[in-house]
Amino acid sequence: MSAQSESRFVSAVKDSVAGGLIALALFSLMLGMKAEVASGMGGQLGIEYRWGAVAIAVAIVFFGRLLLNLFVWKSDKPVTGIMSGMMPKASSFSGLGKFAMPVFLVLAVVLPFLLMSYYGASGSRRYLDLAILVTTYVMLGWGLNIVVGLAGLLDLGYVAFYAVGAYSYALLAHYFGLSFWICLPLAGILAALWGIMLGFPVLRLRGDYLAIVTLAFGEIIRVVLLNWYDFTGGPDGISGIPRPSFFGLEFERGDDGFAAFFGLDYSSIHRIIFLYYLILAMALVTNFVTMRLRKLPVGRAWEALREDEIACRSLGINTTNTKLTAFALGAMFGGFAGSFFATRQGFISPESFTFMESAVILAIVVLGGLGSQIGVVIAAVVMIGGFELIREFAEYRMLVFGLLMVGIMVWKPRGLISTRTPSISLSGKAKGISADLVQEGHG
Amino acid sequence: MSSWTNNPILTIEHLTMRFGGLVAIGDLSFNVGRGDITALIGPNGAGKTTVFNCVTGFYKPTEGRIVMHRANKEEYLLERMPDFKISAKAKVARTFQNIRLFGGMTLLENLMVAQHNPLMVASGFTIGGVLGLSSFHKAEKEAVDRARFWLDRIGLLERADAPAADLPYGDQRRLEIARAMCSGPELLCLDEPAAGLNPKESSELNALLQYIRAEQGTSILLIEHDMSVVMEISDHVVVLDYGEKISDGTPDEVKNDPKVIAAYLGVPDEEVDQVEQEVGL
Fold first, then answer.
1. In this complex, do B102 and A296 lie within 8 Å of one another by their Cβ atoms?
2. What is the ipTM of this complex?
3. What pLDDT is stored for residue B90 in this prediction?
4. Is the CATH code 3.90.1150.10 the one for domain B1-91+184-281?
5. Would you call A424 an interface residue with chain B, using a CB distance cutoff of 8 Å?
6. B254-258: which pairs have CB atoms within 8 A and are 24 or more residues apart?
7. Average pLDDT across chain A, whole number
8. Is the pLDDT reported for residue A260 higher than 90?
9. Of A94, A218, A166, A190, the residue nearest A347 (C-alpha)
10. Name one GO cellular component term (chain A) (predicted).
11. What pTM value is reported for the model?
12. By percentage, how much of chain A surpasses pLDDT 90?
């Protein structure tokens, strides 16, 4: 026994030394030398050596590999096995939806008052802004969930519809002086129209090809907005976008403002709270419509399309139209969220609609679990809220982002909440369907 | 006169399908009789599944005409229709050689998806459904009842809320047939329905097909390798070899046709020369 464990220790050390040597070779160039314009030498290029950093990196690799070897890879009882046993099982999550939804909902509704009573009017503004941001992403996630989660169409350019919605409102307000409440439906309709226009030629593509074309579409919209200077203001963006009113009451000081009408003291926080409830209501409408559609023939056809497109066609389902409705609906909710974004910021520019935004929204949907509404909420709160709270460490944002992704891929490759709830039940007590059986769709 | 010449439900005329230089089907003509169980048999690679794919619109034939004569006297030229319309309008349903169920959806959901088109109309193309109109609830209830009926028929009612991918192989085959029947077809095309079934399941399948033909009035066109199934239940057998029809008739006629014996059913080695001489090879 002791001889065996000793040989295991020796082989672990050997392996770690090999890993350390490779790390040394790589890091001595990557970390150890840094090209720098030396100030003392009149702008000449010099090399700064950082052997300390190399030593730290190599030590991390060596000891990390040693520990992994001893306790995971070559151990009789891998630590990860014990840990994954402690991870919650998928089945225990299925009940979570029932309780989590009402709890989240109540929390979301009373949140502004909780914050106000705790931090006061001025102190809570930061947190309310963050809550608005998170809720916007929840809405975007729910919108994209229709396309990616239900219909199984990989859309990498979702931000294009967000941009269409935002610019629709901004331009209509700028050129025609239309108010937010008129523009909100218009922005949604315009985004849906763009969704259909993109969808018609593109939806015959599948999988990777669809992803690439939607990615390109997202970039095209952004580049057009950037270069059409006369119309969109190009990189300068559009400023002075009007704020929304509360049934005709503006949120401003004076006799006909919101505060005066309700006999309150004027405070700028009123508008923020109003915006929060506005986006919350819009997000809930998105959720309500999605949940409703899932139980209708069109929603079932989306999911069937994700499972097997050929079988769908053999059953008389017009797959092109079905895909288009999913695309258009997803785009419409993106458009609604976009016009909200415009009215909240009061200023928009193409910079807000980069590919990174698409990637973050998609990551929220994928990490949360494809097709899961509550999963999207959790992922949005963690990813957007979590990152904003650690703003001081903004440099490490991408590092944490990557670690989170790796962690999810290892432990929950199908997302946090991956069980699928049947849309209809004969006995009334259908169980959630394990993620292993559900297809992701191939475009 | 046989029913397939008097009263055909499907007529295939001069059907040719070429893939590049390969002729998968060459000038094939045959009829499928209304109310018959018609079997399409032939060795591997004879072009049986290609015929199916042409009939159900998954391939566009290079040449030829495929006419569906519906009970209400409407006629459809299937070679000109997109695949989903063949199911929706011409009422031709099919199953697949490699089962294509919606594995992550429950049995009930599978059968509900098959009733997509009538439900879509009932839901006012979704708008009425979102608003919760009662006419949709009524239509949905009828659809559930029909699904329940078919689940009961194939003996899977207790598993209605289980995912389809969890079913054993034989049950999946029967579920796929039930799903095709839920789309209300007049002609049901089955691609090797008995493949991989044990004798008991195979006889259950025979009973199911007989029931579909007798009680539902649906004509059946099937591809099959299992000769016991073919000879027992089919009224009409068409034999393909290398994309051409070599025999066409009742099971007894086909069984005794020397060409069929040579090409497909097989003869003892010592008789090969003799049979080939008779056939003229």
1. no
2. 0.86
3. 84
4. no
5. yes
6. B255/B231
7. 82
8. no
9. A166
10. plasma membrane
11. 0.81
12. 15
